[in-house]
Design a protein that fits this description.
Length: 519
Amino acid sequence: MKTTQLLPLLFISFQVATLNSVSAQDQRLSFHLDGTNNLAFDTGVVKGSLQKDGRGEALKPITFVEPNVAIDSNHGLFVPYRFLTPQWRYGFGSWEWPRTGNLLDNGAAELNWAGATDRPFNFSTIYQWRSADTLDLTVFFTPQTNLDKFELFLGSYFQKFSKAKAYAQDAGNGNAGFVEWAGDKARDMQVFPKSEQVLPMINDGRWTFPPYPQHLAIRPTLAAPLGMKVQPESGVTVLIMSPPEDCFAVSMAQQGAQANALYLSLFGKDVKQGETLTGHARLIFGRNISDTQALQKYAEYLQDAKNQKDGALMSRAEMESLRKFTTAPIVPTKMDWISPQMPKPDADGWITLFDGKQLYGCTPSAADLDSGKVSLQNDGTLRLDSAGLRFNLSCTNVVISARVRKMSGRNCYINISNKRSGQEYRDCVATFSGGNSFGIGRTGEGKLKGLVSTHSQDSYDGFFQMEFRCEGENLTLKANDRTICEAADSSIIKGQFSVVALNGVSLFKSIKARVLDQH
């Protein structure tokens, strides 16, 4: 029969405890400016820094003082890494995005990231030393659109800490205990889920998005979100933990390599536009920390919360961050920029469908608008999140041109669609999968059949002009006026055309069409 230690503690309702200001007698627990745009620290147990402004890593470098052991590698410790939903992944990691940092009155370090067209959310992190060996992290996340089952994958990257384990309900003997990284699954991301109920979310396809899509190996269910990393040569040990309300999985990767990692999956819940999620995690540094000591330190972590729900127990720093991010400007859902009417062609026959201010000849669904899947950004870009726009124009011979940038997902495409029998649509599709990958295909019987695909000489990572020409049987795809690929398809008949972002985000600065049909 299975037994789980600390079971009463795992269901404590976690709330932020008071972040006490650092006393003058213990300035070692404060971050301080070091004159090189870094927020430095030296607690006597560990020392290192955190880049304050610009694009940068997390806690990096960080070194154990006695013995002198380098801890971090790659992007450092406690770095916001993957921002995931079932539909898409936002960017690569937070190190790609500019941030601003602050040194708070209580000695904590705060980093703030503002939202942008490729990431519709604001978020901030607060790092605070509780004691010489203990660092707490608080994360605030506020989206500018509704997000389904949002996950913030928090990474910590280690140097030569080749031993890793997580606290599971069944350590192989029917009792709770620490379970080590499995060498026979070395190529997989090894995931210890909070419960069986979170497995559908873990396996919903979010791990297939590039860069670095992962094959998952599901390990035993967690008894608590508690992991341990050890450097065998020195005995230096790092505990990584989070409250059970905030974390739904602990993961491990590449433990045998020079650079190896342990991750926390935070949140895992739907979040509405303007709502703020708050998450927590803790690092504890030491030498030769035993399993029993690790459990005691996790119990102390939960006790620190004092089971309080009173917002007054939040520190002034946390309250101010929460206020800033809940009151940050949110892009509203408005309809006045959308008109179902089709404009008249200009002197050259071009019909403007989107010009940076107005969308014409199209009626997006209310659900897509309310959820933010279709939105007009403050900079005048049209943002499609796993959504498409079908225009109220039916034709056979047409040129469609869009200034587009693919941000994430499978591909963005332009298609002409017509209905032949029953409810089945047949489409002729021009696709851009990112970089230099293009193609022309058609759909039939619910399947996409490629006619031609190619890799262009140039890579198109920013905005470019994508043009799809359908004239008779001839299909031509161009990028910045250069012909990329051509095909022939005799099955095309009269239909409407669309622009689509498939399983991801695409941005449009302009869309226009020129009908070639002879009247």
